Amino acid sequence: MPSKEPLSMTTVVFILSIFIYDSNM
């Protein structure tokens, strides 16, 4: 279970990063 949490967080951060990057462009 603990291994699944960081993965989800990383995915959220990744999507957020893409969203911000796209917005900046």
Topology readout:
Layout lengths: L3 H21 L1
Distance between the termini: 37 Å
Mean pLDDT: 84
Structural class comes to mainly alpha
Provide the helix percentage. over 70%
Summary keywords:
single chain, mainly alpha, 84% helix
Question: What's this model, at a glance?
Answer:
With 25 residues, the protein is mainly α. It is built from 1 helix and no strands. 0% of the residues are buried.
Written description of the protein model:
It is a single chain. The protein has one helix at residues 4-24. The protein is 84% helix and 0% strand. The protein is built from 1 helix and no strands. With 25 residues, the chain is mostly helical.
